[in-house]
From TrEMBL, chain A:
The gene is Sptssb_1. It is a multi-pass membrane protein. The chain crosses the membrane at residues 9-26, 32-53. Belongs to the SPTSS family. SPTSSB subfamily. One of its GO terms (cellular component) is endoplasmic reticulum membrane. This is Serine palmitoyltransferase small subunit B. Component of the serine palmitoyltransferase multisubunit enzyme (SPT) that catalyzes the initial and rate-limiting step in sphingolipid biosynthesis by condensing L-serine and activated acyl-CoA (most commonly palmitoyl-CoA) to form long-chain bases. The SPT complex is composed of SPTLC1, SPTLC2 or SPTLC3 and SPTSSA or SPTSSB. Within this complex, the heterodimer consisting of SPTLC1 and SPTLC2/SPTLC3 forms the catalytic core. Within the SPT complex, SPTSSB stimulates the catalytic activity and plays a role in substrate specificity. Keywords: Endoplasmic reticulum, Lipid metabolism, Membrane, Sphingolipid metabolism, Transferase, Transmembrane, Transmembrane helix. InterPro entries: Ser_palmitoyltrfase_ssu-like. Pathway: Sphingolipid metabolism; Lipid metabolism; sphingolipid metabolism. The lineage of its organism: Eukaryota, Metazoa, Chordata, Craniata, Vertebrata. It comes from Eurystomus gularis. GO terms for biological process: ceramide biosynthetic process; endoplasmic reticulum organization.
TrEMBL record, chain B:
The chain crosses the membrane at residues 24-43. It is found in: Endoplasmic reticulum membrane. This is serine C-palmitoyltransferase. InterPro entries: Aminotrans_II_pyridoxalP_BS, Aminotransferase_I/II_large, AON_synthase_class-II, PyrdxlP-dep_Trfase, PyrdxlP-dep_Trfase_major, PyrdxlP-dep_Trfase_small. It comes from Eurystomus gularis.
Length: 76, 518
């Protein structure tokens, strides 16, 4: 029963995605093209986030901690 | 909590009208949706032009390819690429009388709405929330139908002439006297077509050198009539009295544009109920302005005659005003009376003038006799002159249905436009895919609705328009509301951020209907 609820919920989420991006009205081949493009763009965004965001956050953290906490260290 | 009286006490009852603002996220997503559809539209047009795909819409012939292009503007692009995809929600063929329940022929399309084929099945007993059947006179049995059948056997169906030649029947004279008595005016005249009443009579009333002040959202018939007349047209914001007053002041002070002469006539065009918004005109203020600046008022009561007012006499009775204050009262018999045609009522000199000079009277065929009898019978029923209280009961039933339906929809969380008392209920959909989805899902659940998109409404404000009827029983409305709620949850249509607390007892602010808590 739970699997059915989860499947229905996921299908409902897919239906909302179809309605919001208007791919509900497109023909099947147009829908496939649109889904391919969307999934590709989304995958690229996720990959870029995975590769670049931790490094940038760490560098930013070091930069700011150098400004605020850096002075006492350099005098010693 | 003090009940503040605005506008110098012109209103005898609270005027509750609300147009909730579009939520920002919804507007952005609507534009995203239209963007995607536009891109795919360009792709399909490209494929059609390079013959990769078969072109099924209208194009110019080979010899005309070098002429001015006919199908390149936005309207035709929209038609080919957006309207065609969801076209199955419109032009649905019905095969019974459009009463509270209607039968519809089922049709399918195998090539994505370019062509339709009938399966042969008839879908029976669809709850009809789309017909302008406000008082439920669209019936195939009853006093109206019997009287019309008798007149049909007496006079036949065709008139075969115009009013001025041989088409003036005694039935028409009887009808016009009755209409004048119903409205409380001196005299009235009836025409064969409601659209033609507006578009053919406004040119007879105003001409060059006159000024027309018309509401932003006026019907196409009023706009066409105004343009055909050749007068100068100025638009004021929808139902906005400050905008109208500013235009009137400018007109009186500055006169005609180049010569600065005074205008020959100033005519204000308004409608009783605006059918796309569900809003009611602010008639007391318009009449006060009209008297102050000495202009004329043309009131188009197409949707409000029979539907508003304690005895169904229209928006003038709803506000408790004098019908003699409105110079030209126009209306149609299509909506509340279950017939066809239009009328104009006013002073005797005006109507006598129109009998001679109106294009519709001189050139158009007059009303068909059974239709005239339907109007006469239904009007007598509403006035109570047939000896029963059926008419009064219907008017009250419509008012109750309106209040109940609107309250329940607001409680569910939909965005509903318009005045609390108008039987036209627009429910906002916004996103283009939801237009098609709403129409189809409601038909699956046996409810027929009318969905409207561009170009009848602004491009992001697409809506579903419900027209309530006195023929709807409470059970039908409850069924419809249950299904609407279900579809609303399925499609995520409950956008309203103002949650209505049920059964409020506080006095309202007079002009807006704001709900604050929750």
């Amino acid at each position: 029963m739970d699997i059915k609820h989860v499947k229905d919920y996921i299908y409902w989420l897919y239906y909302q995605y179809l309605l919001i991006t208007c791919s509900y009205v497109l023909e099947p081949w147009e829908q496939s093209m649109f889904h391919t493009i969307t999934v590709t763009v989304f995958a690229m965004v996720v990959y870029t986030a995975y590769v670049f965001i931790p490094i940038h956050v760490r560098l930013a953290f070091e930069f700011f901690s150098q400004i605020f906490g850096g002075q006492p260290e350099s005098t010693v | 909590i003090n009940h503040i009286v605005h506008n110098g006490g012109l209103y005898k009852r609270p005027f509750n009208e609300a147009f909730e603002e579009t939520p920002m996220l919804v507007a952005v997503l609507t534009y995203v949706g239209y963007g995607v559809l536009t891109l795919f539209g360009y792709l399909r047009d490209f494929m059609r032009q390079w013959k990769i795909e078969k072109c099924q819409n209208a194009t110019e012939r080979e010899e005309q390819k070098d002429f001015v292009p006919l199908y390149q503007d936005f309207e035709n692009f929209y038609n080919r690429n957006l309207y065609m995809r969801i076209r199955d929600s419109w032009n649905r063929p019905i095969c019974s009388v459009p009463g509270a329940k209607v039968d519809m022929m089922e049709r399918v399309s195998h090539d994505y709405n370019w062509t339709f084929t009938y399966t042969g099945r008839v879908i029976k007993d669809i709850i009809n929330m789309g017909s302008y059947n406000y008082l439920g006179f669209a019936q195939k049995a009853g006093t109206c139908q019997e009287a019309a059948a008798k007149v049909l056997s007496q006079y036949g169906a065709g008139v075969c002439s115009t009013r001025q030649e041989m088409g003036n029947l005694d039935k028409h004279e009887e009808l016009e006297k009755l209409v004048a008595r119903f409205l409380g005016v001196e005299s009235a005249m009836a025409y064969g077509m409601g659209f033609a009443t507006n578009s053919m009579n406004i040119p007879a009333l105003v001409g060059k050198g006159c000024l027309i002040l018309s509401d932003e959202l006026n019907h196409a018939s009023l706009v066409l009539g105004a343009r055909l007349s050749g007068a100068t047209i100025r638009i004021f914001k929808h139902n906005n009295m400050q905008s109208l007053e500013k235009l009137l002041k400018d007109a009186i002070v500055h006169g005609q544009p180049r010569t600065r002469r005074p205008w020959k006539k100033i005519l204000i065009l308004v409608e009783g109920i605006y059918s796309m918004e569900g809003s009611i005109v602010r008639l007391p203020e318009v009449i006060a302005l009209k008297k102050k600046y000495k202009s004329y008022l043309y009131l188009d009561e197409a949707h409000s005659i029979g539907a508003l007012g304690p005895s169904g006499r229209g928006v003038v009775e709803y506000f408790g005003l004098n019908p003699e204050d409105v110079d030209v009262m126009m209306g149609t018999f299509t909506k509340s009376f279950g017939a066809a045609g239009g009328y104009i009522g006013g002073k005797k000199e005006l109507i006598d003038y129109l009998r001679t000079y109106s294009h519709s009277a001189v050139y158009a065929t007059s009303l068909s006799p059974p239709v005239v009898e339907q109007i006469i019978t239904s009007m007598k029923c509403i006035m109570g002159e047939d000896g029963t209280t059926v008419g009064k009961a219907r008017v009250q039933q419509l008012a109750e249905n309106t209040r109940y339906f609107r309250r329940r929809l607001k409680e569910m969380g939909f965005i509903i436009y318009g005045n609390e008392d108008s039987p036209v209920v627009p429910l906002m959909l916004y996103m283009p895919a939801k237009i098609g989805a709403f129409g189809r899902e409601m038909l699956k659940r046996n409810i027929g609705v009318v969905v409207v998109g561009f170009p009848a409404t602004p491009i992001i404000e697409s809506r579903a328009r419900f027209c309530l009827s006195a023929a709807h029983t409470k059970e039908m409305l409850d069924t419809a509301l249950k299904e609407i709620s279900e579809v609303g949850d399925l499609l995520q249509l409950k956008y309203s951020r103002h949650r209505l607390v049920p059964l409020l007892d506080r006095p309202f602010d007079e002009t807006t209907y704001e709900e604050t808590e929750d």
